[in-house]
Amino acid sequence: MSKDPALRTPARLLALALGVCVLSPAIAQETGSRQTRDFVQSLAQSDTFEILAAQSALAQSSDRDVRGFAQMMITDHTAMDRLLSDSAAKAGLAPPVKAIGADQALLLNGLGGLTGPEFDKTYLQQQALAHRSALAEAQTYAASGDNAVMRSVAKTAAQAISAHVAMVEPVLGKAAAR
Description:
The protein is mostly helical. Helices cover about 80% and strands about 0% of the residues. Keywords: Signal.
């Protein structure tokens, strides 16, 4: 039995164990530097936004090019999200929260009432903007991030996002011309 009187009763032991369990998630969330945690969460939010916006495009658009781009976004960002989660675990980081930011929620809500060519144009404009922003973040972390595993993820993400930027531009050009 413990010599510490605070740990002698089963109720106190249970309270201590529960306290450790309650604090463990908070402690786990603080692993990694602020820079790394911010990058991981930002990339996760970007992936989630891209997937949700693409699902909306598949439901709303009848344009073959828009639908093809949207399907690619779902496939590629689902794969990137898996890579991010697996790499975060490998690096000893807490898994990223599957959520979107407030700005991203506003963009998604903005798509809600649109149809036809107006939907297509707005969706593609949002995609171009979101991908350029995500590309800048991925390139910055790839160049100066403090976690080697996450720098590798950032390099992979930057390559994929750069390809998405190149793909969205001509589709947006067609949609804007309609």
